[in-house]
Design brief:
Elements (H helix, E strand, L loop, with lengths): L16 E5 L3 H13 L3 E6 L2 H11 L3 E4 L8 H11 L4 E6 L4 H9 L4 E4 L4 H12 L10 H13 L16 H11 L4 H8 L3 H15 L4 H10 L6
Parallel strand pairs: 1-2, 1-3, 3-4, 4-5
């Protein structure tokens, strides 16, 4: 991270708790320093997988900035364990690898976004801020790959459930937001399209997740695509 950011910039992300996990101390410290300078509350750092799990459980960050290649436990396993225990946790992978297999594995493990380490400091800061707000954040070129995987997953038969309850009824606005989520739009784009606030979009998504008893955006998009909402 070589770029600097103005700590007095408008809408500085004060109060957003962030943890940085990377096995390279200089890189880890630089990322943590840039995020703290931008106004994030960096509550912890960790250099290996088991340490990351322990410290995240102890400090309960809002966003985990996570490398994949970690000693002791791979990053995807760290993500699975922490998101499985706390679905509200947002995980943004920050990796040197742009391999499609790594990106898809990270998303399947519960990551909200995926940024390459070639990103500049300001791009990282913006990505962490958007991740905390619930937006999916991907290095350009990777978002389409992930949406394609959502569609592939939606063609797989869902496991049968005995005595499955009747699907909850969504409001017209919740259905409209869900349709745009399934098309791959960010919360900001949805807000602009529907002429509503970013916070209102977040509230609709959270209400929909609760009604459908889903845990994250991956499950939500799969639900929408299975019902053809992305083609509506």
């Amino acid at each position: 991270m070589s770029e600097r950011t103005d700590v007095n910039e408008p809408n500085a992300p004060h109060g957003i708790r962030v943890m940085v996990v990377d096995d390279h101390p200089m890189w880890r410290d630089a990322v943590a320093r840039d995020l703290a300078a931008a106004g994030f509350d960096v509550v912890a750092t960790a250099g290996d997988g088991p340490e990351a799990v322990r410290r995240a459980r102890a400090t309960t960050p809002d966003v985990l900035v996570l490398d994949l290649n970690l000693p002791g436990m791979p990053g995807v396993q760290v993500c699975k364990e922490l998101v499985g225990a706390n679905p509200a946790l947002r995980v943004m992978v920050l990796s040197a690898s742009g391999e499609h297999a790594d990106v898809l594995e990270a998303v399947k493990s519960g990551a909200t976004g995926y940024l390459l380490k070639s990103a500049g400091a300001q791009e990282l800061i913006d990505a962490v801020r958007r991740t905390a707000a619930g937006d999916p954040v991907f290095t350009p070129g990777l978002a389409g790959l992930v949406l394609g995987e959502y569609r592939r997953l939606a063609t797989d038969p869902a496991p049968a459930a005995s005595d499955e309850p009747k699907a909850p009824r969504l409001t017209d606005r919740e259905t409209e937001v869900l349709r745009l989520v399934a098309k791959g739009l960010s919360y900001k784009q949805i807000a602009e399209r529907l002429v509503i606030s970013h916070r209102t979009v977040q509230n609709h998504v959270q209400n929909t997740l609760g009604k459908l008893q889903l845990h994250n955006r991956v499950e939500l998009v799969r639900y929408a695509i299975e019902r053809g909402l992305d083609d509506a």
